[in-house]
Amino acid sequence: MTRTAVTVGIILMLALAPIVGVVGAEPTQDGENDGSSYGTEYEIGNDVSVWDRSIFPLRANTSDGQTVVSNQDLFISTSENREFDLRRGELAVFGAEEEVELEFDPVSPEADTTQYDGDDVRVIVGTLDEGTALSTFDQMPSVSDLNENASFTQAAETTIADGKFADDVTYTPDAPGAHVVLVTTYDEDGGLAVDGDGNLEPQGPSTIIGVESLFVQDSASSVDAPSSVEPGNNATFENVDDGLETDGDVAHTIVLYDESTIETTPVTINLTDSLDADFTMGDVVVEQPIGTVEGVVTVGETITGDETNRTPFDEVVDLVVGDLNESDSVDLGDDVLNASTTMVVANDSDETIDVATLEEWPEKEYRWIHVASTTDQVATSTGTLDVEEEETSPPGGGIPIAPPSPVPEPEPEPEPEPGENATFDVKKTTLSDTKIEAGESVDVKAIVENVGDVSGTFTAELIVDGEVVDEQDVDVDAGESETVTFTQTFDSPGTHTIAVNDASAGELVVTGPPPAEFDVTDATLSDTEIEAGESADVTATVENVGGQLGTFTAELIVDGEVVDEKSVTIGTGTEKTVSFTRQFEEAGEYEIEVSGTSAGTLTVAEEEDGGDGLPGFGAPMAIAAIAAALLALRTRSD
User: Fold this and answer.
1) Is residue 163 located within the same domain as residue 36?
2) Same-domain status, 498 and 552
3) How many CA atoms within 13 Å lie on the side-chain side of 23?
4) Residues 131 and 9 in one domain
5) Within this chain, do residues 29 and 143 fall inside the same structural domain, yes or no?
6) Do 184 and 238 have their domain in common?
7) Do residues 31 and 283 lie in contact, with contact meaning Cβ atoms separated by under 8 Å?
8) Domain final residue pick, 510, 529, 544
9) Is pLDDT above 70 for 13?
10) Nearest to residue 19, comparing CAs of 219, 333, 282?
11) What percent of the chain shows pLDDT beyond 90?
12) Residue 624 placed within a domain
């Protein structure tokens, strides 16, 4: 692979490798590509199979990268009209000796990893040998072929639970270059393992259920970039230092482009035939909305492009990385990307590189990416600058001379107020995840395009199960697009239909145990009849019939009024007894309940007058009278 092809090669591998990995492979005995969420496992030899949906669940956390840029949203559309989000919203280059978090998620109802719940898995990382092309992995060759082109290490062992890694899994690359991460099942027979020499060693049946690629650099490059440039002028990047350990020539490439176009033009990879043993790369058609690049490509002193500086997008890619695509495999759209690039070869550590802009470029923020590469090393960095006209002020000094009076011009026709003729389309609505656990959140993105003649404000509505749950206003210029993002939390399990205005984002499956739920039973009274001034005990049984630990506040209710409360924490499937003691001062009948469950009727009688020959005396007076009588008898006997 050439030095200038490294970055684009990585992108192609990330998007297509796991698809072409099953080309020509045979389904396992159990494999039936029925379109279910379980997919098909294809045998590639040595008792090793590949799940045809392994491209979806495994991702490296791009926030751990040294160089991170936004990417076009990538989707796969199957011949059965199913669409999968590849979750490639960002691209990252990671740093050697820096920890990278690996995430494994059930991202779609049709790529459901919960089928592997309870399976033990190994996370294995292959580091490609120097000079080995990334395409080595494209066809998932034999284990011996892989061992000849890469060295492997075991990064972790864990278990799949709820479709995810049961433990936190990280990988710290110890060297720059291309790395391929595999998640493979294993059992007591061994499965796919790594021997002491860094080779893959099949020790029993295993299935690769996750595939991810990382590109690693020793350290980021260093560039002094301008903060702004006027349209039509060159953006001058100074003190370009590759930071690579080499005394030879280094290829430098700086790309300056409108990142907002990248963020709002999703790419769809169409599979025109079923993904089975007869599938070939001729069955892949890529829909690329960007049809042309408006800018200047400079290779050394050579500038490409016609007089209008508009170059077909595929020709620009071919210039950088060679002929990557058959003419009938890429369907280009009408969108225009404002971008320029300069490629030079140098061996100085303080190189100055100019990148052209065009006067026609709109004034806004643009992103630049620097890639320095040799045959076996890469260093990258990125940043932004503004393309804008410089504000000028009149020169000072001298005697001011009044300018001639301007000739009145006819009043222009009043322009329409913003929003009068604005027309909007909501395009490509997506979910960050299509399966989450109760209590988690999901991001819902939509691209809002103003197809009218003037700027305007559009109210984007997040709709869940037919009800509007959130709104956002977004300002969009005529002919432009903006991305709106909602974040919504779902607390209860279930399947929800998600949309932004009239554009469906699909279904969201919320899994996990149901929340705590309580039943109150067996409410009883210690006595059904007492006298005024006495107390009665009220007890009840509280059972947690939900799926999670929870706290319940039991209420003692007398004649419909809450008179006391007690809180108890109860585990799922267990019960506790709650008790109240209540004194009743007045006679009457009282209806007693505990949190809506009846304990019965309590009758409180009038307090008795004393009885048994001591009428009219209360208990204290009766005791005093008896004591006085005893004292009188004793006095007489004396």
Assistant:
1) yes
2) no
3) 17
4) yes
5) yes
6) no
7) no
8) 510
9) no
10) 282
11) 40
12) no
CATH number of 34's domain: 2.60.40.10
Sign of the torsion formed by the C-alpha atoms of 25, 31, 34 and 36: negative
The boundaries of the domain holding residue 139 are: 3-71+85-217
Q: What is the number of alpha carbons within 13 Å of residue 11 lying toward its C-beta?
A: 17
**Cβ atoms within 10 Å, residue 543:** 18
Q: How far is CA 485 from the centre of its chain?
A: 12
291: helix, coil or strand?
Answer: strand
Three-state SS letters, 211-235: EEEEEEECCCCEEECCCEECCCCEE
Provide CB contacts within 8 A for 206, sequence distance 6+.
47, 48, 49, 184, 185, 186, 191, 192
Quote the mean pLDDT of the chain: 79
Cross-strand pairs, 50: 42, 208
Q: Tokens for 60? A: 């490296």
**Strand 26-27 to 41-45 pairing:** antiparallel
- Alpha carbon distance 461, 470 (integer Å): 6
Are 229 and 77 contacting, i.e. CB atoms less than 8 angstroms apart? no
Tokens of residue 320, six digits: 């950088």
Q: Is 218 left (phi over 0), alpha (psi -120 to 50) or beta?
A: alpha
Query: Where does residue 563 fall: left (phi above 0), alpha (psi -120 to 50 degrees), or beta otherwise?
Result: alpha
3-state secondary structure 309-354: CEEEHHHHHHHHHCCCCCCCCEEEEEEEEEEEEEEEEECCCCEEEE
Average pLDDT for residues 158-180, to the nearest whole number?
92
Distance of alpha carbon 131 from alpha carbon 143, whole angstroms:
19
pLDDT tens-digit series, residues 483-531 = 999 999 998 888 999 999 989 988 999 887 777 899 999 999 999 999 9
Average pLDDT over residues 263-278: 78
CA distance 14 to 116: 23
Cβ neighbours, 10 Å, residue 47: 17
For the whole model, what pTM was predicted? 0.59
Q: Any long-range contacts for 349-352 (C-beta under 8 Å, 24+ apart)?
A: 349/241, 349/242, 350/238, 350/239, 350/240, 350/241, 351/239, 351/240, 351/252, 352/236, 352/237, 352/238, 352/239, 352/240
Q: Are residues 454 and 585 in the same domain?
A: no
Predicted confidence band at 281 (pLDDT cuts at 50, 70, 90)? low
For 440-493, the pLDDT digits (tens) are: 899 999 999 998 889 999 999 999 999 999 999 999 999 899 999 999 999 888
| Residue 544, CA distances (Å) to 268, 541, 547, 565 in order | 48, 10, 8, 18
Contacts of 207 (CB under 8 A, 6+ apart): 41, 48, 49, 50, 51, 184, 185
Angle of the 313-321 helix axis to the 6-20 helix axis, nearest 10? 100
- Residue whose C-alpha is closest to residue 86's, from 108, 61, 114: 108
- C-alpha closest to that of 28 among 44, 41, 47: 41
Other CB atoms within 10 A of residue 536 CB:
20
Indicate the length of the chain as a whole number. 638
